[in-house]
Task: structure prediction
Amino acid sequence: MKQVEDSEILEKFSNEKTRNEAFNLLLNKYQQKIYWHIRRLVIDHDDTDDLVQDVFIKVWKNLEKFRSDSQLYTWLYRIATNESITFLNKKKQQNNTPLDEVSAELSETLVASSYFNGDKIQLKLQQALLTLPEKQKLVFNMKYFDEMKYEEISEVLGTSVGALKASFHIAVKKIEAFMLNEDISF
Amino acid sequence: MEKLDKTGFTTPDRYFDDLGERIHARISMERLKAVVPQDGFSVPDNYFEQLNSKILSRLTLDEVRQPEAKTVRLWQSKFLKYASVACFVLVASFAFYVNQIQPSAKKPVLVNQSNEQMLFDIDEEAIIEHMQTIDQVQTTTSATDTEIENYILNNYSQNEIARNLKY
Result:
């Protein structure tokens, strides 16, 4: 199925008569990408479900103001990233949880989740990712799972390409060390 | 930029410093991807098929909860608007005119009358006694009795004066 161009979505959205059609096209094109991006950050499916809806509600309200100086795709990712980080920060504050214990909490959620069907290695990779600082985790996820270019990740995070490359390489080293420590070689 | 004299090509600063590490990281990533291509997460059945309608329902609900504020025009017709303004101008002009023709001498009389009324209400002996206790102030500042009285009446309320005179 041929994917609709972002320019067509934006043009249809700018017209009140075709706005709903445009939004449906946008949802069909990006809902899964945004869902998985959020899911890899917050782990739990129900939390992700809420956040995805919040993100697209925000998109509906603000798409008119979207300036084409960035790609629509990276703009959506930026909103999703910010919503996820805000959610995780609120969780830390609500539970009075120290920062390092949030990762442990998310790791427990991962193990107990009925919507994680990964094998031992996949579980270890996710647990390794939970030990990374936020930015390294974001860069790794977008590079590794979403196969985004550094320039696109730079638009999402507002960080230079050079810094992102450094973050990614450090993340890979840490994950490698974690996996080897768990007796998992690759 | 570092310049290689022979070829004329340049590289970013310190490019070769961590090139080895970056290559190693890239190899590790490729190897990891061969072993772990997916993240292992799953979703409930038909989740994405229903997600669109969930989002659209929430949008509709949001719009129902926060309907656009209805604008009610105060002035239904231009004639009414201009007629109201004209009436206001007439009334204001009349009030100003009436105010101007009042003799100005009456104003100080009204102020003096209210001051005198206040003094009348307070016991005379108490006032005299109070004036005697501030005699020192009068001598040092050279203020007249009238000036002092006016100062007290202008800066203190009747209750405050009465309260102080008790002591």
